[in-house]
Write a structure and sequence with these properties.
Elements: H1 2-5, E1 8-16, E2 27-34, E3 39-45, E4 55-59, E5 62-66, E6 74-77, E7 83-86, H2 96-106, H3 116-140
Antiparallel strand pairs: 1-2, 2-3, 4-5, 5-6, 6-7
Length: 141
Amino acid sequence: MDFLLGKIISVKGHANSQAKAYPAEDCVSMSFMFENHVQGVGIWNFVASSREDKVEIIGTKGKIVFATFGDSPISHYDENNQLHQYHFENPKHIQMPFIQTMINNIQVNGNCPSTGESAARTSWVMDEVLKEYRTAANIIC
């Protein structure tokens, strides 16, 4: 999301271990705001009875829906709610194109969109989302 919409400047989250199968959180939710004032919410439940992998971005001129890890088509609904779908085949080794952009960047043959700065921002978001959960987990332990 950092790549698509920019820097997140505010985030609040909740996490718990719903299944109580292990100490790590298995359900996480968050609300956030980007520096351009776009707002969002996310929910990750790893013990739900069904699996759904969906990102939805809704704007003034339609919406786009895509999977983070799946290979379903990218769906674009225009301002008239007309559906347009785009099919892309995932690479056999899903991380290989990203790794290649990093190699190209290091060799000064390209430009990798992920940087140490964007990684630090992602780490900050994750820390903020899990802050209360980790504090509560330390009190219990």
